[in-house]
Every structure is written in structure tokens, then in C-alpha cells.
Amino acid sequence: MLPFILKRLGLALLVAFTVSFISFSLLFLSGDPAAALAGETASGEDIEAIRRLYGFDRPMIVQYLEWLFAAVRGDFGESYYFKLPVAGLIAERLQVTMTLGVCGISFALLTAVPLGVAAAVRPNSIIDRVALFLSVAGQAMPSFWFGLILIVVFAIQLGWLPPSGADSWRHFILPTIVLGYYAMPAIMRLTRAGMLEVLNSDFIRTARAKGAGEGRVMFKHALRNAIIPVVSLAAVQMGFMLGGSIVVESVFALHGAGYLAWESIARNDLPTVQALILVFSMFYIVFTFLADVLNAWLDPRMRSS
Amino acid sequence: MTDMTDPLMQDVQGPSPRDLLKRRVKGHLGLLTGVGIVGLLVLVAIFAPLLAPHDPYAQSLMTRMEPPVFLGGDWEHPLGTDHLGRDYLSRLIYGARVSLLIGAVAALISGVIGTAMGVAAGYFGGKVDAVVTFLINVRLAMPVVLVALAVVAILGGSLTVVIGVLGLLLWDRFAVVMRASTLQVARRDYVAAARSIGASTPRILLTEIMPNIVNNLIVIVTLEMAHAILLEAALSFLGLGVQPPTPSWGLMVSEGKNMMLFEPWLVLIPGIVLFLLVLAINLMGDGLRDVTAPENRS
Amino acid sequence: MTDDTLLKVRNLTLDIPVGGGTLRAVRGIDFDLKRGETLSIVGESGSGKSLTSLAVMGLLGKGIKRSADEMTFEGTDLLRASKRKMRALRGDRMAMIFQEPMTSLNPAYTIGDQLIEALLLHRSVGRETARARAVELLEKVGITAAESRLGQYPHQLSGGLRQRVVIAMALMCEPDLVIADEPTTALDVTIQAQILRLLVDLTREMNMAMILITHDLGVVARVADKVAVMYAGELVETGPAASVFEAPSHPYTRGLLRCIPQPGKTERGAPLGTIPGIVPSLIGEVSGCAFRTRCPHAVPGCRAAIPMRGDDVHGYRCVHPDGAISAEREIA
């Protein structure tokens, strides 16, 4: 299994490296970052001063390497807007985003897996139809709109939960539902499809022929095999969710890394934006790497090869 | 010897594949619903100038935030007016143009990119495949919403920029699915047979590979179209997509958000229409997959 | 006779609802099995032989309707047994060996886990005892280094080894009846004979009854005490193996026998026999002899219900009193 892990790690590093280059070059998309930074009213001299101050006058590749080496050491430069180190800003905000991400994926797994199993055990039953409906609706639901509807109903009309902020666990309930519901349909469908396939396989018949009861057949024999691909998907979804937290955080005014990203984009705070794109990408890369390793460990066929 | 009137000899042969397809399409409620709603909205978008009761851009400070008919408004503005007094129904109708245009063109651009990459990877394998797989990995690692927002912010929000950005970002699923489908087809005997009689690579790709993966392609086109429409709405909602005063459903939700406390319908109406369109496109995509390849149903 | 009868099946009928009708998959099967006896059910794919065995085990898929006048196993009425009772019987008193050794073991667990589970489900013994029993059985089915195999996963074993494991698993509780559903079909020809030999030796040694399902008449001739020939869901001929091979009475049985080359009898270069035509659709009402659409001796009378002919031991279901054997001799 070690060669597999090493190979996978190499790929992860290469992807990370490429992503870092892309997120850095985004800065140059506008043609002249100094002009963009100086604003529309700046004079030619101002722009020139800014260009020298931030080192935009040097070749792009030099700037990139400098930025990369600093980033590896945890230094993402200084925010144009806050005039503070970007790394500190992000670290502070990540706590909220991570909490939201973990809650979101847990919510998604806790609803999607049981629902998927139940739907697979009784195809075309009421529960299968409900699961299908929830997943089809979830895939079509604009999450910002879903968030607003939840606020209107549960915060404004019923007054059960706070509409925005991050002061207590109650503030996280609605955002968790919105973010979790985003990941739920894919997990539910994969669980259902996996269970259906596994339940039709010969070894399930073997387990029944041994005299195993239905519960044992479902959970020990079937789910153990069907859950393997779900683990990968959950990791991928977790990565997507952190990236998607920008929408949810802006709807619920949760001041996490996603909210910071939104603010920074609106303020042209390029170092912060670059760093956030890189950080969110790293999360995705790390999650999928861990998922692949976990997957290999869960699947005996991969573990021994 | 055998008696053809014997009941045992009847109906040993099943229906033809074409009959089966027809039967499956007719029996697929989801597909029919999806096609119906999408078709209707396409017609609405095309004939928007004829259908819209008012100019979607015309402001009227005298008639701001009038309620829709079902909340006590009058038929002059069936769905009421927004905070600038613009007719909500007209904006909704023109908004269909924006959503469908962005969805279709973005899916087209990403479809061309992703299909080219996926088919090349699946057919040639080896280094080409390694490079494409790597690019897919890189693309998946980039947070779509964040990158799209940043790029739109840098380049300025216009319909063209939003379409371009989404088109260049959403090719991943095309590449993944087309790669897998091509791999599957390229291994079949008839491809080897075509090669053995000296058919050129472009010819094989066009006449042997494409017809066999086009079903999957159509399914992904619909699903990615839905994806692009949702993303445009999210970008516009965040204020970094299509810019006002263009009528975009996401923008309408965003503009209505501030009055949400008192006039929740301002948020509800464009959201429901957006939800319905995406739902219909997804139903169409899922339905197409079911009827063209029932064995791949998930 | 009644005392040592292990399994008794009368008028077993299986219906599968399909789009636009009912598939009459098995129609009115009777058979008996005594302790230590081997019954072979023979027929081509789709003849209902596997369904029949699954019906005995109570493992039919959802939606398949089972009915019978009688179905008893060791005095237990299988038609009325509770799910709990059936579970207790399965794996303990009756066990099953499936066709596909590559897929009939769970890929996520070790061989040891799966063998031990088979015992622990029915016996309250410790894990160590179960482990010892697993090793004992692996050795019995001819697996070397049994102890170390316990920790291996199915994918690490060859097809032949896996089938030995599946056999060992079926025998963990020393069942009285083993149902082997084409146990050698998926294996290499050289392995087939070994596995078959092993099954026969073990059933003799442990005095188990066996239902061997196969489409390979060569196999039947070597191991079976009794043969039941099925065609399109019906029993067309049944009797002691020797008697059926010596005097095949149903035209279908004779057709099957002509399909296998016989050393010394089949002439070199002579075409092997085939049975022309295809199996009829069994959807809807099926009456009379199902083989009539392919039978060279079919007459209008074949459409009527046909009783079993012959004696208590060797019976066949044909409208011709002699199974049309005289007609066949005339042609030849």
C-alpha cells in the first residue's frame, strides 16, 4: 500500500503546485494589477509608485516564486485592505468555516446514508420516492435562495433560530442545513446505487444461505462494501462545500473564510483572494488524498496490492 | 412439425429496440415533465418581447413594490413591481433569456473543451490520458465559485464575461464522463475492426466512437447547463455576476433580499422560477439517461 | 421409506410476475430425497432448476410466488416455517454452494471471518473453537496451510481455491442437505473434476444428501443416485441415474444425451446431436408439454395435460406411451 500512498502524494503535490501557479496568475488577468489596485482615478505617477512598491515591475515568474516560497512558510503577504498579514486573517476566519464544513458534511452523511440504504432496501417504496424527491429537489435548489427561505420561515416567521451571525451553536443550524443539503443528493444517490448493486451480488445470497438475519446481511455484509465509494465522495463534497461556503456565509453573515473571500473580492484585496483560493484548493487536495488513502485501507483488494 | 398457431409459439420474440425506446419515453413521467417545462421556458425566452406586458427596464417611482395579484395587487402588474417600480413579470420573462442563454452557451463552450479532452484521453491513452487526468484533478481542486467571482471581479461583470468564465470552468464533468465512455467504446471489437481495415483516426473517432458516446454527452450537456444556470444565479446574487439593470433571476433575489422581511414574495418568485427551470433541466437529463441507457440508472 | 426421507417436494409451482403477465417458471415439480442420497437436477438454462433449489432454501427473490402441496424437510413444513425457523435451518441443516466462486465470497472480509461466521450463526461456541473448526474444514477440502489462509481475502485466492472455501463454509455445521448449484461451471476443466470428486467424497463421508444442479450430463452419470430432468419449468423425466441413462424415455432426455459425445459410441467425425428450436415463452397460461414446439414427435395431443407414465421409480411425462422411442427407431 505504501507505493500507492507515495504515488498519490506525488500527484497531490503536483496538483497543489499547479493550482498555486494558477491562483497567483489570476492577479495578472486584468493586465496591470497596479492600475487595478490604484483605482480608476489614480494618476500615472501613482500607478508607477504602486507598481514599484509591490514589485509588479519585475518579471511575473520571479514574483510567483517569491510568493510561493513565502506561502510555503505560511506568509501570504499583507492584505491591501486590512493592512494585516493575510495568513493571520485567514486562520482567524477558518475556524467558523471549518465548523460549518464539518457540521454540513455530518448532516449530509447522517441524512443521506440512512435514506440511501432505506431506499435501496425497498426500491419504489414510499421511502424510496421521498428520497428521490429530496435528492432531485436538492440538486435544483439554489442554495442562496434556500438559505433566505429558511431565514424567512425559521428566523422571522417562527422566531426559533437567529437569522445571522456566529455567536452560538444555534446560529449554525440553518447554515448547516443549507450546506449539508447541497451535498446530500449526490451522497444519497451513490449510497442507494451502491447498496442496490451490492444487494444483488452473489455474496449477499451466500450470507443469507448461511442463515444470517436481514440486519446482519444489510449492515455487516452489504453496507460495508457499499460505503467504500461513499467515503471518497464525502471527501470530495467536503472540499466543494468549503469552496461553496462563500455563498452560505454571505447569506447568513457568518464571518468565516468564505465571507472574507467575498469581501476581499469586492475590495480588490488581491493577496487575500490569492491566498484564499490556494487555501481552499489545499483543503480539497488534502481531503481527497486522505479519502483515497482511507479508501485503499477500507478495500482489502487495494490494501494488499 | 411445429404448429405456428400453438400458443406456446407466440410472442417468443420481444419488441424492437426502437419500440422499447418509444415505450420508455412515453412511460417516463420525469422526462416528459422536464421537456415540457424547459420547452415552455424556451418559448417564453424567445417570445419575451411579445409576452412581457411592460418594458423590463422601465422604472416608475410612483408604483414601487406593488404586490402581486394573489396578494391583493391589480392586473396591471400581475406579479407586482420591484423596488424601482419595474414590472416583476416582465423582468422574470426577460430573465429567462439570461438564464437560458448563459446555461446553453456555457455548456456549449465547456462541452467542446471537455469532450475534446475526454475523448483524446480515452482514445489515445498513455501520456495524453495522464495529462488530461492531471488537468481534471487541477480543475477539481480549484473552488469554482471563488475563482469565478474573482475573475468576474477583475474583468468586470458582463454577460460575455460570466458566460466565458463559466464555460472555461465547467468542463470537468464532460472530460471525466467522455473519457470513461470513450475508454469503454475504444476497447470494443468493432473499433479494432475499423482500424484493421485501415480507417483513419479522425474517421474512427467520428464514425465509430462519437455515435456511441453521444447519448452520455447529451445527458452531461443538460446537467451542466443546469449547473451553469445555478452558478450564474449565485454569482449575480453575490453581486459579482450579471450587473444591474440586466434582469437576472439571481440578481432579482439579491435585490429583493433587503425587503425580504416585509415583501417575501420579491425573493420567493424569482427563486421558484429558477428552481423550476433547473429542476426541469435535471429531470430531462436524468430522464434521457434512463431511456437511452437504462442499465446506467443510478 | 418414510423414515429416511429427508426432503419431500410435491407439486412445487413458482410464478414470477413480469410486466404484462406471469412467468410460469416452475410448474408442478415432485421429488424426494433420502439421507445420504445424491439427486441431480438437469436442464438447460432457464429450465427452473436453480429456482427450484432456491425455493427449497427459502431464498427466492421478492415477488416470486411459491406454492406447493407439500414441502417438508426433516419433518419441518417449509411452506409454513417462520422466517426465524428458516434462518435456523439455513446454513445449519441445509447449506448451499453457488456457481460463481469469484463473487460468492464477500470481498471485504477474510476467509476466516466468513467461515467462522457460518458456525457462530448456529452454534454457541467460542471464537477459538470456531477457528479450529474452520481450519479443520479447510484441510478437509484439501487446502494446504489452512491456518495461514484464514487471514487472506477472497481476491488473494484462485477460483478453484475459492470454491473449496465455499464448500468448506457450507459444511461448517455438518448439514444434512447440501444444494450445489452448478458448482463447477465457472472453473477450469482440470479443476472441475477435482472439485466434483471432493464434493462426492465429502457427502459420502459425512452421510449428507446432495442436490446437484447441472447442465452437464457427464457429471450426472458419474455421481448421481437419482436424476430429475427439467425442461422449461417442468419435470419431464425422473428416476435412478442408471435407469435414466440406460433407457431415456422422454424425447427431450434422449435429445440431451445425443448432445454429449460418448467414447466408443459416437463415431469420429459424426455430427453431435443438437436440439433445434428455442425454449418457448412461459408467460401466461402454459398447458400440455412445453417441449412440443421442438419435439420431432409432437402430435395435437401434446397440448393437453399429460400424466406421468412409467413406474414409481422411473417416470416420464410424454403423450406417447413409449415416449416415442419406437418412432425414433423407425427413423433410424
UniProtKB/TrEMBL annotation, chain A:
InterPro entries: BPD_transp_1_N, MetI-like, MetI-like_sf. The keyword Transmembrane applies. One of its GO terms (cellular component) is plasma membrane. SUPFAM superfamilies: MetI-like. It is a multi-pass membrane protein. Keywords: Cell membrane, Membrane, Transmembrane, Transmembrane helix, Transport. The chain crosses the membrane at residues 98-121, 133-160, 172-191, 226-255, 275-298. It holds the Pfam family BPD_transp_1_N. Its main location: membrane. Residues 94-291 form the ABC transmembrane type-1 domain. It is found in: Cell membrane. One of its GO terms (biological process) is transmembrane transport. Belongs to the binding-protein-dependent transport system permease family. This is Peptide/nickel transport system permease protein. It comes from Tranquillimonas alkanivorans.
TrEMBL record, chain B:
GO terms for cellular component: plasma membrane. GO terms for biological process: transmembrane transport. The keyword Glycoprotein does not apply. It is a multi-pass membrane protein. The chain crosses the membrane at residues 29-52, 98-124, 144-171, 213-242, 262-281. Residues 96-285 form the ABC transmembrane type-1 domain. InterPro entries: BP-dependent_transpt_permease (IPR050366), MetI-like (IPR000515), MetI-like_sf (IPR035906), OppC_N (IPR025966). Keywords: Cell membrane, Membrane, Transmembrane, Transmembrane helix, Transport. It is found in: Cell membrane. Gene3D superfamilies: MetI-like. PANTHER family: OLIGOPEPTIDE TRANSPORT SYSTEM PERMEASE PROTEIN APPC, PEPTIDE ABC TRANSPORTER PERMEASE PROTEIN. Belongs to the binding-protein-dependent transport system permease family. This is Peptide/nickel transport system permease protein. It comes from Tranquillimonas alkanivorans.
UniProtKB/TrEMBL annotation, chain C:
GO terms for molecular function: ATP binding; ATP hydrolysis activity. SUPFAM superfamilies: P-loop containing nucleoside triphosphate hydrolases. It is found in: Cell inner membrane. InterPro entries: AAA+_ATPase (IPR003593), ABC_Ni/Peptide_Import (IPR050388), ABC_transporter-like_ATP-bd (IPR003439), Oligopep_ABC_C (IPR013563), P-loop_NTPase (IPR027417). One of its GO terms (biological process) is peptide transport. Keywords: ATP-binding, Cell membrane, Membrane, Nucleotide-binding, Transport. Residues 7-257 form the ABC transporter domain. It is a peripheral membrane protein. CDD domains: ABC_NikE_OppD_transporters (cd03257). GO terms for cellular component: plasma membrane. It comes from the Bacteria. The keyword Isomerase does not apply. The keyword Secreted does not apply. Belongs to the ABC transporter superfamily. PANTHER family: DIPEPTIDE TRANSPORT ATP-BINDING PROTEIN DPPD (PTHR43297:SF2), OLIGOPEPTIDE TRANSPORT ATP-BINDING PROTEIN APPD (PTHR43297). This is Peptide/nickel transport system ATP-binding protein. It comes from Tranquillimonas alkanivorans.
